[in-house]
Design a protein that fits this description.
Layout: H1 20-40, H2 44-58, H3 67-94, H4 98-115, H5 122-142, H6 146-153, H7 159-182, H8 186-199, H9 204-216, H10 220-233, H11 237-249, H12 253-260, H13 266-279
Helix pairs in contact: 1-2, 1-3, 2-3, 3-4, 4-5, 5-6, 5-7, 6-7, 7-8, 7-9, 8-9, 9-10, 9-11, 10-11, 11-12, 12-13
Length: 281
């Protein structure tokens, strides 16, 4: 939090008379001192209550004899009240109380506008709120609630942050798809790889797993669509091999031959060569 510069209030000047005016200014000073003590103790909720009361009382005093003291109290309150709201917001954010943190950052801006504090601006508050939303979205993503994560990070309008969360979601689903495929749970592999591709349409790995899994389920048209998308993103010997096999199973030997010829992986080339003898006629 930015350091607030306190004014040295000429308290000795307050003993002006024994009349009502002296009693009034003394009451305002006492109220301000309560708020100042709470502020220094980082009891910001109480500080806000006392400082707002002190400010309201100070503006009601118009006597020139205590004008310097009144102005000092008002100036300090104008600085300290918005910063109190901002400090509460920061503490709430550190405790992962994100919605409350956003509320208090907005309150800090409202207080700054009310009291004419130019240190807290809409731009600075928006930046802090966006950081809160990004942190909240990351937590949602870690918990696997990717839709909520995307919804939250979209509030920032930060394309880079949005893309980061989407890729995080895609990577998580891709990992689940790989695990399912190794376990020969192809229906789950299809479901998870589709979700990975939804969040990251540039993931050739997602389309490869999707295509291979569809092939294992004998859904060759879907397999062909997925593997074509994989190859459009990046040449892959695996994708060419399974694409050729899918075309072969679909009865399109010409396409099968064409794709088998593109398999240049040593582990797959022998099988590809063997199949070419069947389909390349």
């Amino acid at each position: 939090m930015k350091q607030v510069k306190f004014l040295l209030l000429p308290l000795f000047a307050m003993v002006i008379s024994f009349g009502v005016k002296a009693q009034d200014i003394n009451a305002v000073v006492e109220q301000f001192n309560k708020g100042n003590d709470a502020f220094k103790a980082e009891n910001y909720q109480q500080a806000i209550v006392d400082l707002e009361a002190a400010y309201a009382a100070a503006i009601a005093i118009t006597d020139d004899e205590v004008a310097e003291t009144v102005e000092g109290i008002k100036t300090n309150c104008k600085n300290m009240i918005p910063f109190s709201y901002s400090s509460i917001a920061g503490s709430l954010a550190s405790e992962s109380k994100y919605d409350e943190a956003v509320d208090y950052f907005n309150r800090s801006l409202a207080a700054a506008e009310k009291y004419g504090n130019t240190d807290i601006t809409k731009e600075s508050v928006t930046e802090k709120i966006n950081l809160v939303y990004s942190a909240q979205a990351t937590n949602f993503a870690k918990d696997g609630d990717f839709d909520k994560a995307i919804e939250t990070v979209n509030k920032t309008g930060d394309d880079e942050a949005i893309d980061k969360i989407k890729k995080y979601a895609a990577a998580s689903y891709l990992k689940e798809a790989q695990t399912a495929q190794r376990a020969k749970d192809y229906k789950t592999a299809v479901e998870k790889s589709k979700q990975a591709a939804d969040y990251n349409p540039e993931s050739e790995s997602a389309y490869l797993i999707l295509g291979v899994s569809y092939s294992q389920l004998k859904q060759y048209k879907n397999a062909i669509d997925a593997l074509e998308k994989c190859i459009a993103l990046k040449d892959s010997a695996q994708a060419y091999y399974f694409l050729a096999a899918a075309y072969q199973q679909s009865g399109n030997n010409a396409k099968a031959c064409q794709n088998y010829k593109k398999v240049n992986d040593t582990k797959l080339s022998a099988n590809a060569q063997a199949q070419m003898k069947v389909v390349c006629k």
